[in-house]
Amino acid sequence: MTAVTTGSPSRLAALYRSSRARVVVGFAVAAVLLFAVAPATLSTFRLGLLGKFLCLAMVAVGIGLAWGRGGMLTLGQGVFFGLGAYLMAMHLKLADAGPDGVPDFMMLYGSGEVPGWWEPFRSPVVTLLAIAVVPAGLAALLGFAVFTRRVRGAYFAILSQALAAAFAILLVGQQATTGGTNGLNGFRSFFGYDLADPVNKRMLFFLAAGALLVMVAVARQLMVSRFGELLVAVRDQENRVRFLGYDPAKVKVVAYAVAAFMAAVGGALFVPIVGIVSPADVGVVPSIGFLIGVAIGGRATLLGPVLGSVAVSWAQTSLSETFPSGWIYAQGALFILVVACLPGGLAELFTRWRRARATPVPDGGPTPAGDAASEDARPGGGPPAAAAPPARTTAADHAPATPGRTARPPDPPSPPRTRRPRRPT
Questions:
Q1: Gyration radius of the chain over CA positions
Q2: What are the CA-CA distances from residue 44 to residues 39, 47, 178, 186 (Å)?
Q3: Chain center to CA of 250
Q4: What pLDDT digit, counting tens, does each position of 263-299 carry?
Q5: d(C-alpha 85, C-alpha 79), whole Å
Q6: How far apart are CA 63 and CA 295, in angstroms?
Q7: Which of 83, 164, 354, 373 is disulfide-compatible with 76, CB 3.0–4.6 A?
Q8: What is the CB neighbour count within 10 angstroms for residue 135?
Q9: What is the pLDDT of the chain when averaged over all its residues?
Q10: Would you say 90 and 320 are in contact if contact means Cβ atoms under 8 Å apart?
């Protein structure tokens, strides 16, 4: 018998190098598709649509980390997406108005003066820092207040959804400072670059594509690290992780803050690419739309949320152009179908295919060819005869014979036991 050396260091190193090589090849293919194929084959309008889809996919990457790995059903990611979008929109409106100018909507709906809390966003550095810090800090504070009290499951989902609804209502009520239901629009420049120039529009698409690839790489590194294993453990057995000496609340807070940061960056790039942000982009309905794309693609995988979000966004745009009122029904039917038949999302099909390919064939097992050959070898080619049951033996049958004594005959088989009928009462 030969020893099995599947756990040798050399084999493990080879498997690691192979896995890392596959990841590098995957990122290289994605980079070629996004940076070479898409700009060469799509028009400026379609390229802008793809850039919009990539911004929404950034939100999906964070949801896949928080929900797929951490088990946190985040129904309020529109809040952090909206924070990043509105912070960027405020800077763009101030930049278009000039050094001491007033945005146009404030002249119509406000007092004609810029509020004091708007003034710091004239600086590009302050704006970028605010986009990176404010949403993540708000998510950390909210997560610490919620997770330390062991609020989870449906209660956390309802709380996050209520936060998204309150944020949208707040934006609608502040028309003098946020534009109200109209939102902020009419941007002419992006950090000094003219947004009407097709070259600059392509540059924005490259920024969105690069940011998405970086987020996917960060998410993968977190998933395969010790933190990723601890996050999955918290999702599956939170009490056991707590008994082992870890604090599940801190693990959840970190994942929730990272997801909020990714959503904020997606919202910040969404504004110059699309050209508008309004409460309709950050409320309850968009937050559920983010979640639907992740669920359809596969929340527990790395690329499932990205591909699902892009596919759902593309289907929404395509069906809305042909059937304006039919998309909402198609979206609901697709979500129900995936949840009922493929709980792991469309990525589960690929997982099943890989498992089917990796299933080894047992050595020496019967094969269809061998069965047919044995059947042909029987006289007449008929069905095989039933095998006789083994004879009943006792311990005396296997005992050695004693000199001068005859062997004890085997005991007769005991008759089957029958139940005695009950006497009627």
A1: 32
A2: 8, 5, 29, 19
A3: 21
A4: 999 999 999 999 999 999 998 989 988 998 898 888 8
A5: 10
A6: 10
A7: 164
A8: 28
A9: 82
A10: no
Residue with tokens 């207040």: 145
Identify the three-state secondary structure at position 220: helix
Which amino acid, 256?
Y
Query: Which phi and psi angles does 48 have, rounded to 5°?
Result: -65, -40
pTM above 0.90, yes or no: no
* H-helix or E-strand spanning residue 5: none
What are 276's strand-pairing partners?
185
pLDDT band at 329 (very low <50, low <70, confident <90, very high): confident
- Token representation of residue 165: 């609804």
With a pLDDT cut of 70, the percent of the chain lying above it is 79
Burial class (CB in 10 A: 0-12, 13-18, 19+), 236: exposed
User: Which residue reads 């062997």 in tokens?
Assistant: 407
Alpha carbons 388 and 271: distance in angstroms, whole number: 79
Distance of alpha carbon 92 from alpha carbon 72, whole angstroms = 34
Hey, what amino acid is at 215?
Answer: M
Residue type, 25: V
| CA distances to 138, 155, 377, 392 from 231, in Å | 21, 19, 59, 57
Report the C-alpha gap between 396 and 407 in whole angstroms: 9
